[in-house]
Design brief:
This protein is mainly α. It is built from 6 helices and no strands. The longest helix has about 35 residues, at about 170-205. The N and C termini lie close together (about 5 Å).
């Protein structure tokens, strides 16, 4: 750890933990969507929208703190990048739920539940990791596992695309479902970006 003579603003740690906890809440709403009938999905989408707004609030709080703090616990650009990537995850998850409702999808294709399970596990790991930024310890396994999960998500996504294009679905249904599974894949990519940013921070601070 590099030695500093100037005190650093430490509230960033709590703000990142709050943002990650909100991401975990969003992943649980995604899982809830899987077992919901179409009639109850609108209510789940409303709760996901509220969670996305809470994520925006957390991101804005970090940016406000960044703009009003002279000495930060680690590089300013990394603080900005980490906050933005956490916000991206919430945006993608909210978009996926919204699309399911807007497109009035009766049944999601087999394999989407695997995508959502991967996102749920990545969210758990991310929420567990954020408090460790304070000490910069016990984070190595976090980014390794999230990268592994993202590779798993890639494989699931490719299988889903192959299934969608095998002739089972009408063309318009393929377009709708592909947009949903693509957005879920973007959420997995965003989790990896968060993990990579954390790795960058730890390497710089070591």
């Amino acid at each position: 750890m590099r030695f500093r003579l100037t005190p650093r603003e430490t509230s960033f740690y709590e703000l990142f933990a709050t943002a990650a906890d909100n991401v975990l809440s969003g992943s649980k709403l995604l899982m809830e969507l899987l077992g919901a009938d179409p009639a109850t999905r609108v209510e789940i989408a409303d709760r996901m929208r509220a969670a996305e707004h809470a994520g925006d609030d957390a991101t804005h709080a970090i940016f406000h703190q960044l703009n009003s703090t002279f000495v930060t616990p680690f590089d300013r650009e990394d603080i900005y990048r980490l906050a933005a990537r956490l916000d991206d995850i919430m945006d993608f998850m909210e978009e996926a739920v919204d699309l399911v409702v807007l497109y009035e999808i009766d049944e999601l294709p087999k394999g989407v539940e695997q995508q959502i399970e991967v996102l749920g596990r990545a969210a758990e790991l991310t929420a567990e990791a954020m408090p460790n930024l304070r000490s910069m310890r016990n984070l190595n396994e976090y980014w390794i596992e999230v990268n592994r999960l993202e590779n798993q998500a890639d494989q699931i996504h490719r299988k889903l695309l192959a299934h969608l294009f095998n002739g089972t679905y009408e063309a318009i249904e393929v377009m709708k479902l592909k947009q949903i599974v693509d957005v879920l894949e973007e959420a997995a990519d965003a989790f990896e970006s968060v993990a990579n940013t954390v790795e960058t921070i730890v390497v710089k601070e070591s």
